[in-house]
Amino acid sequence: MSVSSNIAERQGRLIRSEFLHFLGLARGSLLELETQPSIALKLGHLHEEALVKLDQESYQVLGLINRLLDSLRKPEVVASPAKLVEPLETLATLKL
User: Is this model's pTM higher than 0.85 or not?
Assistant: First the structure.
């Protein structure tokens, strides 16, 4: 939830530098979140299959965030809310 909340909070302000900053925070939250299932597996609270599925979904979200960061870092690209809707909708549909 922290990942999508960070992205949504700054997208609404439409200030590119802030949005980039909070995409970075969302990326950090996602990487932090990736450790939790591993710990749950070691403690016996999670099955290996669930860990694999969570890792795959996390990798997908990380790819979306990285591509969005890359596209916004290009000086010739102007971020518009319409162009950001699809990646954000995709993030919202993934269940982490």
Answer: no
